[in-house]
Amino acid sequence: MHRYRFLFSLQWVILTLVAIALIPTMIRLGFWQEHRYQERTARNDLVSTALHADPVPVERLTSPGHSITRTEKYRTVTATGTFDTGREVVVRRRTNADGEVGFHVLTPFVLTDGKVLLVNRGWIPANGAQTDFPKIPAPPAGRTTVTGRLKADETTAASGIKNVAGLPDRQVMLINSAEEARRLGASVLGGYVEQTAPAAKDGSPEQISDPGSEDAPLNYAYMIQWWLFAAAVPVGWWFLVRREIRDREEAAAEEQPEESEPATV
């Protein structure tokens, strides 16, 4: 056992403790990535199911004060009514597919029964200072049927966007049906719709692309990677121990005096 006495030195005690601590840490990181993989896979399945479901009238899924659920989010809905451009607002600091900063156009859509649906008509460039109300292309006039993806009300907690007070007139930071109901003094359906039809024409707001899928396989790869790292730690520790033993034995052999040759007569 004297070969392993060096393991009790301060340097090797610290190295061993670090190795012992790394193993459960890496295992936990692997389980965390597994959890993220399962979350993203479940989210992708929900989104795919919602996007491929048949369109339904919007009031079948939401009503004033309703909170959009995970299974309702991204469902394709239809609504018939009239755009109220006189009371539309823009949502600040929103980007398009190319990463350009501009606004989302949020227009109240008055349904045939008088209730209001918030319709995000798409993205427009700022074309000037962010404090200026932009020039907004007009939507179809008169009675119109729109189609879009149902979305949940935006909150600071869910989006990370701070709801700043004192904004310029007709500008908001978040799309929230409860706040818009107070502003409009109307009965507003919970959530909002990202318009997908009628299709955008030249000069109209750039419609928002579908949410796509999150890269769940990447989390799966990270999970395997962390667990391989955890398995490699004891292997690496044992390799260092064997190398230390070899180096010490070679050094000891070099320090031993050579046997003197026998005298010749």
UniProtKB/TrEMBL annotation:
It comes from the Bacteria. It is a multi-pass membrane protein. PROSITE patterns: SURF1. It is found in: Cell membrane; Membrane. The chain crosses the membrane at residues 220-240. Keywords: Cell membrane, Membrane, Transmembrane, Transmembrane helix. InterPro entries: Surf1/Shy1, Surf1/Surf4. Pfam families: SURF1. Belongs to the SURF1 family. PANTHER family: SURFEIT LOCUS PROTEIN (PTHR23427), SURFEIT LOCUS PROTEIN 1 (PTHR23427:SF2). This is SURF1-like protein. The lineage of its organism: Bacteria, Bacillati, Actinomycetota, Actinomycetes, Kitasatosporales.
